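note to self — DONT lose this again. spent like an hour looking for the file last time. sequence + predicted structure for the chain T wanted, 308 res
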Amino acid sequence: MPLTNKKSRIVVIGVGAVGSTTAYTLLLRERMDELVLIDANQGKAIGDALDMNHGLPFLGQSKVWAGTYEDCKDADIIIITAGASQREGESRIDLLKRNVAVFESITTEVLKYNTDGILIIASNPVDIMSYFTWKKSGWPVNRIIGSGTLLDSARFRYLIGEKLNIDSRSVHAHIIGEHGDSELPLWSLTNVAGSGINFTDDEKESLFSDTKNAAYQIIKSKGATFYGIALALDRICTAILHNEAAVLNVSTLLNDYHGVSDVFLGVPCVVDRNGVREVLPLDINELEKKQLNQSAQKLKDIISSVAM
């Protein structure tokens, strides 16, 4: 996507807990000139837009409105957060059948008006929904980005930082694979400023378990997760709009990545104005390769059972 002087526009489709928090985060950080909210419940979108507009005297000059799919026409980024909410005790994969029908309708409408933007998928199960969206859209794969394991990796870094009493921003650690139960930690590459981390096996297991189950804990406590994912989506948007070439653990189509192909999974990717510029190779150990392939196979089995 060429850099231009036109006003930047982000569309958020679905203004439930995740969508509205994401929109508000983008507004607070003044990421775009125009912010469009779309929801099946038009009243909710109107209310959110009006509420945000009332705060503009305290912010910048962003324009916010409740729109229709026609407003996707000039969007640089379209974020899809719509879909059924995850219920307590329900895995992300259990959401699939309820969300496929929603995405079929959304993707059809978006494609009527936009053919050169970037789609960011946040609805769960995000890797499968990203794959489905790519198949449906026919767009170049670099312009379909799932939120992937970006938030999982942030949770992982936070917990490691807490244990070591070190700023989590100085912790280099990755969760890759499915954004869900088959994700895996890359202990072989985890470090603080290049210095290795010496945890016991029990400590590693506890830290990873707390990372993997974080969403379930939050859902049990308050019904939904939205602050963390909103910040993760804001980070992806910033990398795109500022052409950063930032390395982010987003979900993208893999092609012979340690033996994994034809599935979207979260891995470190270079993200810039064109979306996913490249997937970074990782020198992971044999156990991690095996776990990554198991994660991929789990999703591929599910995908193969759903009519695309």
